[in-house]
Design brief:
Elements: E1 7-13, H1 25-35, E2 40-46, E3 59-62, H2 67-90, E4 94-98, H3 100-105, E5 108-110, E6 116-118, E7 125-144, E8 148-164, E9 169-170, E10 172-176, E11 189-191, E12 194-197, H4 203-206, H5 208-223, H6 235-248
Parallel strand pairs: 1-2, 1-3, 3-4, 4-12, 5-7
Antiparallel strand pairs: 5-6, 7-8, 7-10, 9-11, 11-12
Helix pairs in contact: 1-5
The chain binds glutamine.
Length: about 250
């Protein structure tokens, strides 16, 4: 077990407006895999109008949403959360963003109806809505520094096509499904400890390696490089993950 004195704080951005396909499950998975190791992970909901102290957080989660949900919170994200959140992300705050959340971390999202939603600009990506949605199961091959090579499984459903600039690293290579734009095989983007991708699922319950990678990054940032995650059984989750990969590739 890890030291029971480890404590981490997670900010859940706009849970009411941005939660599709069970994205909330990502927060539950982070909390549970912490709990099983004796790490206390507290969760703070961030609603429009809140003014949290972003420097106090270790992890953040930003789920997907309809274009209409994104339009409701885009201004709050940019204007109210922008300065504090950007500074925290530059300082290594660990953030996972899915689909609609991912799109709003980029420079902008031009929806398929022509509405231009400005993004936080933390990730050097931009998104253009198309008339045909990219839907289906997806497998992305990634290399996560604290756990090694993994094949992440998920489900995607988006009209937006996300294109990368030189300021981000690809999270992985698409082995099955559409990925960020259906054209260049990119599956998600990473900048510092900010991760954005299109994998609903929920992503983290299906991919315990990524869950543990995110917790490891947060622990090391808070408690120093010697902070280690205790090993934890994930036989069932890995069996389900493997079964899905076999069916898709
Ligand atoms: N509204 C966005 C799109 O369709 C994001 C959808 C989602 O989060 N699933 O591209």
């Amino acid at each position: 077990m890890c030291e029971p004195s480890y404590q981490l704080k997670l900010a859940h951005l706009y849970a009411a407006q941005m939660n599709v396909y069970g994205d909330r499950g990502n927060v539950i998975a982070l909390r549970q895999r912490c709990l099983w190791r004796g790490i206390d992970l507290s969760v703070t909901a961030i609603e429009p109008g809140d003014q949290p102290d972003w420097a106090s957080f270790d992890l953040a989660f930003f789920g997907g949403g309809q274009d209409s949900g994104q339009a409701l919170i885009a201004q709050d994200l940019l204007e109210r959360q922008g300065p504090g959140l950007r500074a925290a992300l530059e300082d290594g705050l660990v953030l996972l963003a899915i689909c609609g959340g991912y799109q709003l971390l980029g420079h902008y999202f031009l929806t398929h109806t022509g509405e231009r939603l400005p993004g936080l600009g933390v990730l050097d990506v931009h998104t253009i809505g198309g008339n045909q949605r990219l839907i289906g199961n997806i497998v992305v091959e990634a290399d996560l520094p604290t756990v090694g090579p993994v094949r992440l499984v998920g489900f995607e459903n988006h009209s937006g096509r996300t294109y990368h600039g030189p300021g981000v690293q690809s999270m992985g290579r698409v082995l099955a499904g559409h990925g960020d734009n259906g054209e260049d095989g990119r599956g998600g983007a990473i900048y510092r400890n900010t991760f954005g991708c299109y994998l609903h699922g929920s992503l983290l319950p299906k991919n315990p390696q990524l869950t543990d990678h995110l917790i490891s990054l947060a622990l090391r940032r808070r408690y120093g490089p010697a902070a280690q995650l205790a090993p934890l059984d994930a036989t069932l989750e890995l069996h389900a993950q493997q079964t899905m990969i076999q069916r898709l590739i």
